[in-house]
Amino acid sequence: MSVPFCSLKYAHDQIKYEAEKAMEGVYRRGQFILGTELEAFEHELATYGGTQYCIGVANGLDALYLSLHLLGIGPGDEVIVPAHTYIASWLAITRTGAKVVPVDANSGNMLMDTSLVTAAITGNTKAIMPVHLYGAACDMSQLTAIAKENNLYIVEDNAQAHGATWKEKKTGSFGDCNATSFYPTKNLGALGDGGAITTDSKALAESAFSLRNYGSTDRFTNPVVGINSRLDELQAAVLRVKLKYLDEWNELRRVIAQSYLKQLKGVGDIILPTASYASVYHLFVIRTQYREELRSFLFQKGIGTTVHYPIPPHLQGAYDSMSFKKGVFPVSEKLAESVLSLPMWPGLEEEQVNWVVKQIKKFFEGK
User: Fold this and answer.
1) Would 175 disulfide with which of 156, 201, 206, 311, CB 3.0-4.6 Å?
2) Mapping DSSP to helix (H, G, I), strand (E, B) and coil, where does residue 225 land?
3) Separation CA 319–CA 333 (nearest Å)
4) How do 165-166 and 153-154 pair as beta strands?
5) pTM tops 0.70
6) Taking Cα atoms as reference points, which of 41, 50, 56, 55 lies closest to residue 172?
7) Does residue 295 come out as left (phi exceeding 0), alpha (psi in the -120 to 50 range) or beta?
8) Are residues 194 and 162 located together in one domain of the fold?
9) pLDDT per residue over 194-239, tens digit each?
10) 101-128 tens-digit pLDDT
């Protein structure tokens, strides 16, 4: 049986007629940039996420960068970020000219270790960037308390947690300015690149609308230096359709996750992700010291897997100038050596999940 790591077929088949009709409407109207579809999507996503404003941009990295920039973060400032994350979280900080200040991951939930945040704060710290990794929410109660006590901003990276909650409040609604991505494989994915900023601040939203469009609100008038980063009408139209199905698709992910959690409990040396109904299981990530052997074995059985992420940002060549040594963030480095993402997508059938579990159990029979 072939089980790909990710497949968009189920979701796209489900919305095929609606999506094609939505795209045809854009084509017929001939309005492709900053039109009515984007405006409607921004309103609908803000309402869904519980924020006052949403600003569509070209991709998740731009959303992170602009969120930081809007808060005045730049050279001489420091931003606290997880050591275990995709490098985009770090790149956005670097792009502003600010300094990346990593903290190690929590060995239990694989997210930012909130107990280490206070010690990382200096006189130059301006913001904390929690990353809701793999579909699970960071402890926003503790992080918002720390930020308030130290007069810091919060910028959430919500790219992997569309629809997730912390104490019944949606992720992406806690920070001063927050960012997300609509990369095709995300829980809410476009048919290409896309991203968004969310905020409750009218002033920040107005600035974001200007900055994403060359620093302009009136055509050919540019009072500030901006960039070109706009979510286009076709992507917005498709995302409007998909948003209506997001909760349903997230529930399917939870069902799949529960099956994995139940069937893989106590198998080999596997460490399972923390079970949480609030998680939207963008990825289902296990840990094992036999990662590469298991991955190779599953590949031979027609099962796709991926590693998120094999090299932590502090050991990437992009950050050689910061002179981080191996061992400085031991938990994050251990995760990089042991995490393995199993197949996870809405529409993954019970028979396929059982096949994956069966082969994993078969692998560990020889260990």
Assistant:
1) 156
2) coil
3) 15
4) unpaired
5) yes
6) 50
7) alpha
8) yes
9) 999 999 999 999 999 999 999 998 888 999 999 999 999 999 999 9
10) 999 999 999 999 999 999 999 999 999 9
